[in-house]
Every structure is written in structure tokens, then in C-alpha cells.
Design goal:
40% of the residues lie in helices and 21% in strands. It is α+β, with helices and mostly antiparallel strands. It has 2 domains: 272 residues, 3-Layer(bba) Sandwich (FAD/NAD(P)-binding domain), CATH 3.50.50.60; 140 residues, no CATH class. The strands form 5 sheets. A 7-stranded antiparallel β-sheet has the order 17-16-13-14-15-12-18. A hairpin with a 3-residue loop joins β14 and β15. It is elongated, with a radius of gyration of 25 Å. The N and C termini lie close together (11 Å). It binds flavin-adenine dinucleotide. The site of flavin-adenine dinucleotide has 38 residues, from α2, α3, β7 and α16.
Length: 433
């Protein structure tokens, strides 16, 4: 990397003469494109490379089910979604948080609205019009996008290796910004193949792990799978340890559970599995009723009716909820209204494994903030900046992922701009490094 640095420093000085600065960005997701925006706005010549035939594929996929681009909740609550990484994310959001992001979208000619949950969406819920308008603006600002160009790391002389349809090319640049995404949904481009490339250059990385992911149980019964795999568990609550159970819904899958309620708890569940080999969550199948109410209803005489009918008529439990209760509650509980009520209000579900990273909505792990300076430049690789989901932070769904990707893309772009300007002004210092 020292070689690259000397080369980039030399370039910086060459460009000082021509006052033309150049940056290479690898990765055309929201983070890389945002970096391209701030750099091109500042007059830097930007070449952006992406391995895929087009940029922003995951961003477009995020728009398929309704593009939740940010959240309208108050800043302290918003920031708390980044949990232990909140202190590192805070400066990024202070510069470009939810309000700034919404304004930026409006400036692209796309209106937004706040849903009942406080989530913010483009008015048409789609990502494609936004991406189209954005790419048009970037091209007008002089950003050159090169697709089908896979970054393979560095040559021994510090130049960059890019593999395209016509073979491998080597590139030199004043500075490099990596926005390569995490490790999920590899078919959209973010395959995590950058991990060994940075590790080989002395960057200490946190392993990529699934975040906002589903979980496996040891094994569901064949009956449950055959009748209820794919069935939604609506209006339930889920809790881990002594935390207040969270309301929401999830889906029973052939091997476990997934869905928004599970994603919201995925970080602590994953950590508990990493630590203890398994995590037990408790499901409340009737969050609207107190345990005493449920018990009183179940204690009513059931006469000749079956237990299924009794559960259905007295407390409204049937279908997948009834099947899950049968699967997880002890047999004897069905003869004891108090025990059955307790099971309905806190049904223990043991989760043993995360679903594979590729299936997850996002990744945890990646480049730790400790490996970068405040401008998001790698301390091990001066002149190399990182942004987006490849950084070691995670957040639940709700627009927090995209917001931090945009914010870090902007911060890294501005960091790189500062680096270029510093190179222009202090060439002597640069050569001595
Ligand atoms: C199904 C789904 C729905 C989602 N919905 C939402 C949502 O509603 N709201 C939200 O906030 N977030 C959502 N997300 C998450 C969000 O889309 C991502 O967090 C975000 O796209 C990450 O942005 P990024 O720029 O860091 O990386 P990415 O968008 O992953 O972009 C990385 C780019 O780098 C390129 N690349 C990688 N390696 C190389 C290489 N070696 N050489 C060249 N190019 C390379 C890739 O091709 C890709 O274009 C969703 C994710 C998924 C999977």
C-alpha cells in the first residue's frame, strides 16, 4: 500500500499543476453513488466501477416491496437503532441525517410521505424513478460509470486490478473509495469477496454475519411444516431474555421463523446463539390479553367440544397459532388452564442457527470504525476510504440501513475530497509519507 500511496501522492502533485483531481470509486450502491455525488460536485473527476451490468441493484430490490428510505422518528430514537455503533454513526447523521436525506430526495424531484409506522417512503414507493433521476444528475456532473468491472485488489506496484469483459486492466488514481456492500444477496453484486483483499492489506475486519435475518429451529414436526410452512403469525409479541416483548408479526418457515418481528430482534438473538449455541425467545400469542383473562376463558367448561374448538371459541387461537402451541407447549398443559394460559403468553421457542448470510436483508461485521480515521480513511491504507454496509455497523429495517449508507457515502466522499485537497496543498508532506 505504501507503493500505492507514493503513487497517489505523486499523482496528487501532478494534478496540483493541472488543478484536475481524480478519484476512483468501486461499488455503485447508494453509498458509492453518494460519494460520487459529493466528489463530482466539488469538481473532482470521478470514475465509478461496479462488477454488475448496472449499478444500484440492491437499492432497486429494496424498492420492490416498498422503498423505505428513512424514518421520521426523533433523532435520539433514530440514533439508538445503531445500538453500540451509535457513537460512530452519530457524526455521519449529524451531517446527513433523515431530514437532509428527505430534502435530497425532494431535490431529485421525488416526493416522500411518512407511513403510519413513521417510516418514510417515496410517494410511489419505488426506487427506480429515484435511481434514474440520480444517475442522470451524476452523469451530468461528469461521473463516469463503468459496469461489468470487478475489482480484484492491488498489483504489487500499488495500482488497482479491474477485471472486465476484455480482460484485466490496471488503474492509477489519486485516491480510492470502496463502497462494496455487505455479504447478502450476492447475486445483486455484494458478495463480500472484498474481505480477503482488505485483510491481506492489514485491515483487521470483523467477520461478516447475517443481520435482519431468519433463524432455524432444531426441527419442526413434519405435520407443522406440511400444513403451515409460509403461514404468517400475525399480532403476536416476541421477547428475548427479560426485555419487554415486541409486538409484530413473523412467518413460520420450513426450518424456523423469519419476518419483520424476527429481524428486529435478530442482532441479540444472533449474539446469544454465537455465545451459547442457542437462544430461546418467548412468543406471546395473545398480546392483547392478560394471562389471567386467558386462563379464566380457558377454565370455562368445554363440554364435549374438542380442545381445538375450545381454544378457538374462548380465546380465538386457531390455525398456525394453535399448531405452534401444540408443537411447543408440554402435552400436560392442555389439561390445565393455568399452564395453557402461561404457555400462550410465553411460548418458548429455541432457535439454534441464523439463516445463511446470503439470505439476510443486511450484514453485520466488516470494516471496524477503529480501523478508520474520522474521515473514514483506512489507517492501514492511507488514501483508501470505505463507506456503506461494508462498515461494521448494523441496524434494524425501517430505513436505518439506507440512511447510514447514504450518510457514510457522503462522509467518505468528503473525507476523500479533504485528502485530495491536502495532497494538493502539502505535496512535501505527502512525499515523505
Ligand atoms: C431484500 C432487501 C430489501 C431491503 N430493503 C431496504 C429498505 O426498505 N430500507 C433500507 O434502509 N434498506 C433496505 N435494504 C438494505 C439496503 O438495500 C442496503 O443496506 C444498501 O443497498 C447497502 O448499500 P451499499 O451502497 O453499502 O452496498 P450495495 O447496495 O450492496 O452496493 C454495493 C455495490 O458494490 C458492487 N461490488 C461489490 N464488490 C465489488 C467488486 N469486487 N468489484 C466491483 N464492484 C463490486 C456491487 O455490485 C454493488 O453494486 C434491503 C436489502 C435487501 C436485500
Amino acid at each position: 500500500m505504501a507503493a500505492l500511496f507514493c503513487q497517489t501522492a505523486a499523482h496528487a502533485m501532478t494534478h496540483a499543476a493541472s488543478a484536475s483531481r481524480h478519484a476512483i470509486i468501486i461499488g455503485g450502491g447508494p453509498a458509492g453513488l453518494m460519494a460520487a455525488e459529493v466528489l463530482s460536485q466539488a469538481g473532482v473527476r470521478v470514475d465509478l466501477y461496479d462488477a454488475m451490468p448496472s449499478v444500484g441493484r440492491k437499492f432497486l430490490l429494496a424498492g420492490v416491496g416498498g422503498m423505505n428510505i428513512t424514518h421520521s422518528e426523533a433523532y435520539p430514537a433514530f440514533l439508538s437503532r445503531y445500538a453500540e455503533r451509535a457513537p460512530q454513526i452519530a457524526p455521519l447523521l449529524r451531517e446527513f441525517g433523515a431530514d437532509a436525506l428527505r430534502q435530497w430526495i425532494h431535490d431529485l424531484g421525488i416526493e416522500t410521505f411518512v407511513g403510519t409506522s413513521g417510516r418514510v417512503f417515496p410517494t410511489d414507493m419505488k426506487a427506480a424513478p429515484l435511481l434514474r433521476a440520480w444517475l442522470k444528475r451524476l452523469r451530468e456532473q461528469g461521473v463516469t460509470i463503468h459496469t461489468r468491472q470487478r475489482w480484484l485488489g492491488w498489483n504489487a506496484d500499488g495500482s488497482l486490478r479491474l477485471q472486465g469483459p476484455d480482460g484485466e486492466t490496471r488503474l492509477h488514481s489519486d485516491a480510492l473509495l470502496l463502497a462494496l456492500g455487505g455479504g447478502s444477496w450476492a447475486r445483486l453484486g455484494s458478495d463480500g469477496a472484498w474481505v480477503p483483499l482488505l485483510a491481506a492489506r492489514g485491515v483487521a475486519l470483523a467477520p461478516l454475519q447475517p443481520s435482519n435475518c431468519g433463524f432455524d429451529v432444531q426441527a419442526w414436526s413434519e405435520l407443522l411444516v406440511s400444513k403451515f410452512a409460509g403461514a404468517p403469525l400475525k399480532n403476536i409479541a416476541m421477547g428475548l431474555n427479560d426485555d419487554l416483548p415486541r409486538l409484530g408479526e413473523c412467518v413460520l418457515t420450513a426450518s424456523g421463523i423469519e419476518g419483520s418481528l424476527v429481524y428486529a430482534l435478530s442482532a441479540p438473538i444472533r449474539e446469544a446463539i454465537n455465545r451459547d449455541g442457542a437462544a430461546t425467545v418467548h412468543l406471546d400469542l395473545l398480546p392483547g390479553k392478560a394471562q389471567g383473562q386467558v386462563e379464566a376463558a380457558l377454565a370455562r367448561p368445554r363440554g364435549s367440544r374438542s380442545m381445538s374448538k375450545h381454544l378457538h371459541s374462548q380465546v380465538g387461537i386457531d390455525g398456525v397459532k394453535a399448531a405452534l402451541l401444540r408443537e411447543l407447549a408440554p402435552k400436560e398443559a392442555f389439561d390445565d388452564p393455568a399452564r395453557l394460559a402461561a404457555a400462550i403468553k410465553a411460548l418458548p421457542l429455541r432457535l439454534v442457527k441464523t439463516r445463511p448470510l446470503d439470505e439476510a436483508i443486511s450484514s453485520a461485521g466488516g470494516v471496524p470504525f477503529e480501523a478508520m480515521d474520522p474521515s473514514l480513511m483506512l489507517t492501514a491504507l492511507p488514501g483508501v476510504f470505505c463507506a456503506g454496509e461494508m462498515l461494521d455497523w448494523e441496524a434494524p429495517t425501517g430505513g436505518y440501513l439506507l440512511t447510514a449508507c447514504f450518510a457514510s457515502g457522503r462522509a467518505a466522499g468528503l473525507g476523500l475530497l479533504g485528502w485530495l485537497n491536502q495532497g494538493l496543498q502539502s505535496g512535501v508532506e505527502a512525499t515523505t509519507l
